[in-house]
Amino acid sequence: MAKDPVRVLVTGAAGQIGYAIVPMIARGAMLGPDQPVILHMLDIEPAAESLNGVKMELIDAAFPLLKGVVATTDVQEACKGVNVAVMVGGFPRKEGMERKDVMSKNVSIYKAQASALEKNAAADVKVLVVANPANTNALILKEFAPSIPEKNITCLTRLDHNRALGQISEKLNVHVGDVKNVIIWGNHSSTQYPDVNHATVTTSGGEKPVRELVANDQWLNTEFITTVQQRGAAIIKARKLSSALSAASSACDHIRDWVLGTPKGSWVSMGVYSDGSYGIQPGLVYSFPVTCEKGQWSIVQGLKIDEFSRGKLDATAQELIEEKSLAHSCLN
């Protein structure tokens, strides 16, 4: 039996990440190789022509799984009946801009998109916020879409998670698929805490802790952390453009694991609603280690947090508390 198509919304679809992610979705990288999709692409009026060009290319690529394309600048039309929403569109920080300026622009964008999703999307829509400040944009979206369950609104820290896996695999010269259970705690910003205290590598002699194999706490507690935190900036410096390819790929990973489940014995990092786990104030969107099953995520419980980690978890939480109050002051 052929499956019914799933409607996937991508906002900011004419931009760099949009251009990278739509073919991935159309090829089945997000929802699986046997799941037909209908792509809903939204962008702003000045990008309408470019958006139409992307639609033409999607048609030209003749993707077998792609059952339809909606390309529009109308947010209501874009949100109609969508099952998955990938919120890439946002106002980027430009040189000389204060954080508050970026925040106020994005707060108004996410407020408007929240009500359009609430009114038009499928009742069980799963939302992934990619645009920065991702955690706080997700928080605003939830506040203005009260009927969407809070469990269905998440933000992207899988990119940072994948970056951490990549750094460990490079350092140890092992295949990245053999490294698992790193954690990104907190905000998708330079205060995030990439944590390897529970991470392992599959070796010929069984699973070994990353700390034991790296055997260099100094590197793991300093350079490793800053490399992951600053990786986005390093890519902008090298490419003169942001890390669109890896962001698109990790957004697919995030949704795929959320919908289809995480492999047994491993977890991933997702920005989700805090329920007070690990002493993090409830009501923040905070990155935790999670496992997913039957379309639901659960925070991994009972991990030991040492003193060094505790300080890092609290510092990134503090930044999110400040962002939340900044966002609310922008709304008022």
From TrEMBL:
Q: Has keyword DNA-binding?
A: no
Give me the residues that bind NAD(+), please: 12-18, 43, 106, 130-132
Q: What are the binding positions for substrate in this chain?
A: 93, 99, 132, 163
What EC numbers are recorded for this enzyme? Answer: 1.1.1.37
What's the top EC group for this one? oxidoreductase
Show where the Lactate/malate dehydrogenase C-terminal domain sits.
157-325
Q: Which reaction does it catalyse?
A: (S)-malate + NAD(+) = oxaloacetate + NADH + H(+)
**Domain Lactate/malate dehydrogenase N-terminal residues, every copy:** 6-153
Which residues are catalytic? 188 (proton acceptor)
What is stated as this protein's family in its record?
Answer: Belongs to the LDH/MDH superfamily. MDH type 2 family.
Q: Which PANTHER family match?
A: MALATE DEHYDROGENASE
Q: What is this protein called?
A: Malate dehydrogenase
Q: What is the lineage of its organism?
A: Eukaryota, Viridiplantae, Streptophyta, Embryophyta, Tracheophyta
This protein's gene is called: LOC110760310
